[in-house]
Amino acid sequence: MDKTNIVSQAVAKHVRISAQKCRLVTDLIRDRYVGEALTILHFSKKKKASEIVGKVLHSAIANAQQKTPDIDVDNLYISEIFVNQGAQWKRFRAAPMGRGARILKRTCHVHVSLEERKGR
Question: Does the predicted TM-score (pTM) go above 0.85?
């Protein structure tokens, strides 16, 4: 991927949702225009994941407007979006016979990169 065309980026780290759940939502909006992606996220059934990805996408749009004030938001599209696994919070719950059962509270990192495409 050529990094010179990227208009803006946004990253959310240590988000308290599993990467697998978040990837289901990011796969829906990959390689789409920003307006279309926001509509898909708004009507998605996966509310928590779509809310998180929507916040990162709004941040990337704001970064693009801050960096280049005369940019047309309608021409922005999601060139790269991916979710990586973050740190795991390890907790224990009481189990029978004096043992402890491990609970993993998973986190993830969401990355969004936007590019500008002229002419739909």
Answer: yes
